[in-house]
Amino acid sequence: xxxxxxxxxxxxxxxxxxxxxxxxxxxxxxxxxxxxxxxxxxxxxxxxxxxxxxxxxxxxxxxxxxxxxxxxxxxxxxxxxxxxxxxxxxxxxxxxxxxxxxxxxxxxxxxxxxxxxxxxxxxxxxxxxxxxxxxxxxxxxxxxxxxxxxxxxxxxxxxxxxxxxxxxxxxxxxxxxxxxxxxxxxxxxxxxxxxxxxxxxxxxxxxxxxxxxxxxxxxxxxxxxxxxxxxxxxxxxxxxxxxxxxxxxxxxxxxxxxxxxxxxxxxxxxxxxxxxxxxxxxxxxxxxxxxxxxxxxxxxxxxxxxxxxxxxxxxxxxxxxxxxxxxxxxxxxxxxxxxxxxxxxxxxxxxxxxxxxxxxxxxxxxxxxxxxxxxxxxxxxxxxxxxxxxxxxxxxxxxxxxxxxxxxxxxxxxxxxxxxxxxxxxxxxxxxxxxxxxxxxxxxxxxxxxxxxxxxxxxxxxxxxxxxxxxxxxxxxxxxxxxxxxxxxxxxxxxxxxxxxxxxxxxxxxxxxxxxxxxxxxxxxxxxxxxxxxxxxxxxxxxxxxxxxxxxxxxxxxxxxxxxxxxxxxxxxxxxxxxxxxxxxxxxxxxxxxxxxxxxxxxxxxxxxxxxxxxxxxxxxxxxxxxxxxxxxxxxxxxxxxxxxxxxxxxxxxxxxxxxxxxxxxxxxxxxxxxxxxxxxxxxxxxxxxxxxxxxxxxxxxxxxxxxxxxxxxxxxxxxxxxxxxxxxxxxxxxxxxxxxxxxxxxxxxxxxxxxxxxxxxxxxxxxxxxxxxxxxxxxxxxxxxxxxxxxxxxx
Length: 796
Ligand code: BMA
Known about the structure:
The chain is globular. The mean pLDDT is about 95. By secondary structure, the chain is α+β, with helices and mostly antiparallel strands. Strand 35 (about 645-655) and strand 36 form a beta hairpin. Bound molecules: beta-D-mannopyranose. Belongs to the glycosyl hydrolase 2 family. Keywords: Glycosidase, Hydrolase.
């Protein structure tokens, strides 16, 4: 039987004659930080102070003594699950090999060897610059040379990320001792045929020189099957009658089945492979129709509007992300009503912990191959690396029912067409051969059960512009970069795979990251932690379209930019969801952050939820009520993604900002399951001018579903001076409004960094009250609690 010996202990990190203790898995930066050699790059200007680390070479060393190295078994392999990135590995002075791909694992035969194990990392810059020198420079969205080395691209910095170029043994390492044969690879092809769960396990084995008959035996859901191994291959088929279907969250349960596969020789078990699978079907409907070319995920025959978020590596030092942290972050996504997470191409093929959590939580996963925002050379050594990493990761991730889509790259097909790459490349390779050649071929060969799309955005072919909203996936970035968020309403893309709006992180996060700094939008630390091109300018202009920009009042600026972020994303999602099934998904840029930073994230770098996070709960609920401008009038849309019909009377009230009801009507709406119903707002109820607005409430009002419409931007609304009362309740506070109170927010973290409020922005009409639950604080008095309450104020 194969035996594994973990090699997590006893490593040192060496640079020239200096040594310090090393963590494995880990990276150089975190070791230097733990040893007190560098300041925390997440704090203040720390990022700039540690830039030298990424330019140096570093060696990890450990003794492989007789006891761990020797074994009675025939063969011993040294297995690295991940090396970041360019390294020479030697044992007892003998070279074992060189590696250059963070996205692969490596195995070396070290039978009979012992002595000093050394992994000598060369700076990823050195490799990238050498490859660029040989293959020629290619265009990219950022200046750092990330497209010349197979390493997480955002290691080199991004428009939300620090430049911290890591090196290290970033995933576990171990010895495997085995005899006769071991399981080298298992490809589980899981399908559903008329209610029967079908599992086909294609097994590859590696043998020592001894040729003995081998068999594989598998069990799943109480079914057992066996097959002979012919040479190095065997295939076992199992049929599980009455298989329970795995569903995305909100559509059904997530039953998972344990699969066990044993490699047998003369009745003895040589090796065991265990995974969890789920039975579900997935298709991507890309048929053309009257509106263009669709992009609709169909799971178990159910057509879905995907309520998505984009995921970036949760830490710029990914070896720090524990299973618990993945789980917590993904639970946050699920808690916001998200049902799809797109793993963006400037990051990683994530660890098993990520996909395990998604399997359990019913989060669909869209996985980008790691290519983003650059022209990538297709020559060696990159070409071979790309194919090898794709083969390995497609097979590694196949067991997970949550994984429903492979995507070739982020924005590279678009960049080629639109960002002056085509003329600058002048015929050089740029990655098309990966996205339209190597990658779809690998997916089709190894895992034909899952759809593949060449890029995001991508219209399906070169006949249409890659970012054409009418065809396939669309990234909506003009709006954040140059326009007002109201412009989201100008089009109905088939699937919005990226769009978003920036805001600073929670106050307590800023306070931790920028100790001692007098905070201002342009204070030194704030600028160090704002990476977007003209980010503050865009924040400012975006804000000025809606609010009077507060001068010299950081706290108000902080609150209003967060409100504006939530409003912007709401404008997009409310409009796009109301156009289901033409539009079949929105994937917000972005769920999370990899350090404390002003960014598009809903959850900040310290894991705190911004107001946008709570707004997503409303926007992504099964039922959403929204008021939309259409053809010169207003329309009330009831969006129903649930399985039950939604019929009811909706109350429309035309209100004055002082609280007077100017007109009122009841309208009937009937939205069938997974359908949208719309009804025109009677003309006499349409509010006009700076003193009026419209409220639509769903009746019966059990869910408190409401839509609001203000005809002019906030800075023109003649809001009354807000008045409200605050009372402490056992689990939080209750606020009772005496006037209209717009977008009330309790920033609990201002009172206690540990405190979390259970809701974000709440608008109250005069006389209404809300109870905001708070956990994690030492209950303050009502006046102190009040100091952390913000709301929109009249323009003075
Ligand atoms: C898209 C993404 C990222 C980027 C984001 C915000 O281009 O794919 O590259 O971080 O926009 O600019």
